[in-house]
Amino acid sequence: MNTHWIVEYSGQLLDGLGTTLTLLALSAVLGFALAVLVALGRMSRNPLVAAPSIAFTSVIRGTPLLVQIYIFYYGLGSLFAQFPLIRGSVLWPYLRDGYWYIAVALILSVGAYVGEVVRGGLRAVPRGELEAAAAFGMTRRQVLWRVRLPRAIRLLLPTLAGESVLLLKSTALASTVAVVDLLGAANVVRAQTYQVYQPLLLVAGIYICLTFIIESGFSLAERRTMFRRAT
Amino acid sequence: MSSFFELVGFGDQGWGGALLKGLWVTLQISFGAFLVGMLIGLAVATVKLNGPRPLVRVAQLYTTLCRSVPELLLILLLFYVGSMGLDQLFAWLGYGGLQLDGTLVAIAVLGLVQGAYAAEIFRAAIQAVPYGQIEAARAFGMRGRALFLRVTLPAMAPHALAGMANLWVVLIKDSALISVVGTNELLFTAKQAAGSTRHYLTFYLVAAAMYYLLTLMSNLLCGWLERRFQRWMPSV
């Protein structure tokens, strides 16, 4: 088995790993913030707030992520290119790079999928705890931030672990719009060395390790935040 | 500048026919992969629940692998390795030069990934069947295939329905990934149309709308099926 390409391309593979990890972190954090907003929007009694949230969730969850990425990157990208004002602006180098399109697509995706998860969690928080918090004199906003949301997140940790792994796998789509992430790096090696499956196998192994790290991280968090389950 | 309806219509300038053909291929791939995934899932779930030790290990390796490696990577890997291997196999059997059908490879690859997820759903569903029912069937002298087909399968089906409905929708969406290796399904056709007319946004939005209709109809159908199955669910 020929393995000297690993040394030769290790720099590129590490760069790719870095891209995958920053993409994962960026879309996890911003996506989760969006997810909380979407969940609150869906639970709102005001139809002007609830309806757009429901539509957003339905459309994002009902279409393939790859198609969404193409709409952003090729669709909006080619639209932006038609405006000299945008083309000439300082933002253009960023607007040309697939990275930010992928990031936006992933953030929206997390917002929709995890939004549903968060909604389920917010509804699962025992009423008594919310009433107790209100009895202490907390305002509705304080109850949400100090009691309801933390409690919901704790309830949802196992589900969020699964969603994070799915997000990690989704970041691999970055390679379809010429972003050199982990899979993109493997493709570069594949094209330059004619090694068909070895780089892919190596990268598959790295993804498995990352999945393992994510899952152990979440189960650690679960054990560190033990609480007594309401009966 | 041609109008939207000329672009996606059925005239000689229109891509409507090609897109519908792509949709049909997408449906073929999804259906085929769903069936393959179900068969693999049932087999793997059975092995995981009461198979011999080494086989359980293999089954576990398969499910972790398929669930933690990006689908796109698996598709690339299996597509290249699979078509290379099958080519060699055909050549060795004396059928050299037999071109592999992209649709079939897509079905095999997506089915293999589906199988890993389906296995977990079926395992949970089989475990949800009250053991007394299986004991009763055994007492009647049922064994093996008869036991499975007449008792276990009907009893587990309502439990597996919601999960499998989810998987079906995930599968329709995952089938778009196949466009990367150049099988002429819906997204691949949209990509060709977008490239040759330079109307990127139009064609990707049309493709998105077609996928959305597909998943929307699937969700409605699954909701209806679930309500029909409710009557066979043990009342909790």
From TrEMBL, chain A:
Name of the featured protein: Arginine ABC transporter permease protein ArtM
Keywords on record: Amino-acid transport, Cell inner membrane, Cell membrane, Membrane, Transmembrane, Transmembrane helix, Transport
One GO BP: amino acid transport
Domain ABC transmembrane type-1 per the UniProt entry, residue ranges: 17-219
GO molecular function, one term: transmembrane transporter activity
Membrane topology: Multi-pass membrane protein
GO cellular component: ATP-binding cassette (ABC) transporter complex
Pfam families: BPD_transp_1
UniProtKB/TrEMBL annotation, chain B:
Stored NCBIfam families: HEQRo_perm_3TM
Organism: Metapseudomonas resinovorans NBRC 106553
Localization (cell): Cell inner membrane; Cell membrane
GO CC, alphabetical: ATP-binding cassette (ABC) transporter complex
UniProt topology in membrane: Multi-pass membrane protein
Family label: Belongs to the binding-protein-dependent transport system permease family. HisMQ subfamily.
Spans traversing the lipid bilayer: 29-51, 72-93, 105-126, 147-171, 201-225
Pfam families xref list: BPD_transp_1
The UniProt record lists the keyword Cell inner membrane: yes
Record key words, sorted: Amino-acid transport, Cell inner membrane, Cell membrane, Membrane, Transmembrane, Transmembrane helix, Transport
Protein name: Amino acid ABC transporter permease protein
Lineage, uppermost ranks: Bacteria, Pseudomonadati, Pseudomonadota, Gammaproteobacteria, Pseudomonadales
InterPro entries: AA_ABC_transptr_permease_3TM (IPR010065), ABC_transp_permease_HisMQ (IPR051613), MetI-like (IPR000515), MetI-like_sf (IPR035906)
An MF annotation (GO) of this entry: transmembrane transporter activity
GO biological process, one term: amino acid transport
Domain ABC transmembrane type-1, residue spans: 23-222
Predominant subcellular localization, coarse grouping: membrane
